[in-house]
Amino acid sequence: MMKTAIFGGVNAAVLTAMNADLSVDLDRMAAHSRWLLANGCNGLGVLGTTGEANSIGIEERMAILDGLVARGIPARRMLPGTGTTNITDTVKLTRHAASLGAPGCLLLPPFFYKNPSEDGLFAYFSEVAKRIEDAAKIYFYHFPAQSAVPITVPLIARLRSAHPGVFQGIKDSSGDFANTKSYVDAFAKDGFEVYCGDDAALHDLLRAGGAGCITAAANVGCPVSAAVYANAGTATADAAQVQLAAIRKAVTSAPLIPGLKALVGRRTGDASWNHLRPPHLPLPADAAQRLFATFDATGLKLAA
User: Fold this and answer.
1) 170 by DSSP, 3-state: which?
2) Which of 21, 248, 284, 289 counts the most CB atoms within 10 A of its CB?
């Protein structure tokens, strides 16, 4: 596995805590971030898909980063999602995250217009790279099921050649391990960090030379993810990976974000975790109980 990666190891795609009026609850979000760092996470992927980022305004996102840092969450441990549909906001968010000390940012492609050409995507990412002026490393976010815009090996190669030292890695949420490994095979030898978004692929990725994971399930399964990472290449990691795959299957048995918030609410004893911004809705009580039973069957007991 890659041992020199900036965000090497286990990174949670951090949930964003909300109040009843749908404003962001920074105190609860910071408390959850501290719990993650104390229970096996090496880093925090804030303002990603799981964090409901695309339901949160640009100024709000900047305030979230400010608020977490003000509450003692180290910026150097954060990989904020800063990719938007437009260059202006992407650059603004990325430069703000960098000004706080975040060493890298995770960028979705411009996802509104479908079937963009490779030249068009190259032009978009090149413009962002020029405007951030090396303030932070850029990590691609490949999530074609959600964005409908793939990040390909040829595109990455072009961008890394045109902007040396800027494009540092990728999170692959395709669920296609062959695709994930193609990034490793093409670029890991040059220090390019490859992270899986699928917990079930973590040990295979580490054995192939990847850097780690950035996953939603790490909000509740990070102690097991950490066991896989710490023991990579051993039977201990194999056993932990079996449990981690079961955790992933459990949390995806319900709508992902409402389900994770229900699980964190149960762990903390705080039902306020069930607040989400529409179109997401809280899990009905019967669905939550089914999720809890499925999760508990994995054998993971979470400390409060």
Assistant:
1) strand
2) 248
